[in-house]
Structures are given as C-alpha cells and as structure tokens.
Amino acid sequence: MTRIKRGNIARKRRKKILKLARGFKGTHSKLFRTSKQQVLKALRYSYVGRKHKKRLFRRLWITRINAATRSNDLSYSQFINLLKKSCVSINRKMLAQIAVVDPSGFQFILTNIFNKSESERKSNFVKYT
User: Fold this and answer.
1) pLDDT by residue (tens digit) across 102-114?
2) Distance from C-alpha of 36 to C-alpha of 21, rounded to nearest angstrom
3) Which domains can be identified in the chain, with CATH numbers?
C-alpha cells in the first residue's frame, strides 16, 4: 500500500479552526488544541445566546407594555386579558413599539379595547327577576 500524506488537508483544517479563533485572547488564538476547544465553546455559547436573546426581548416588550398600561391605571395582565377578549391580534413586539414611539396611539388602542369590553359586558348582562 502506498503511504498517504495528509499535510495539506491537516493544514487546511487547522487554519480553518485558527481563523475562527481569531480575536481570542492569548494562546486561545495561537495554539491549535486550545483554540479548537475555545471555538467549540464559543459556538455553543452563540447557539444558546440566540435562544436567550428571544427571551430577553420578550421580557423587554412586556416591561414596556406594563409601564405604558400602568400609566393608564391598568395592569399588564388586565390589558392582555382585554386584548384577548376583544379579539385584537397585535403582538407584544408591535404593542411595545407603539407604546414607546407613539404613546397617543397606544392610548387610542387602550380606550378602544376598554370601550369594546364595556359594551360586551353590558350586552352579556342578564337581569334575573
């Protein structure tokens, strides 16, 4: 059998890892073994970070909506309940953006939802005699 020399292939593989490790501190960007470990760890952190970012933004949106609703004497949970009952399909991201950029528009949404729920409550009222 002939001898297989894989110098070029091994060098390409190592260069690829070292390229990914560029910008890391100390030997983590210079030595292959440590840089390989750090690249794997960095990729794992970036994967988890992408999932974590979604949670953080949802928390931010809820906080902004809560602040806007509390300034109108309503809690976040009551506001979301009124939204669901009035069949308004605006997601939290859009609501938070409206609350920050256009407070009068958010006030308009709030009053419409509140008026709609009041009229539904009156129509569902049954008088027992």
Assistant:
1) 999 999 999 998 8
2) 8
3) 8-52 (no CATH), 53-123 (1.10.1900.20)
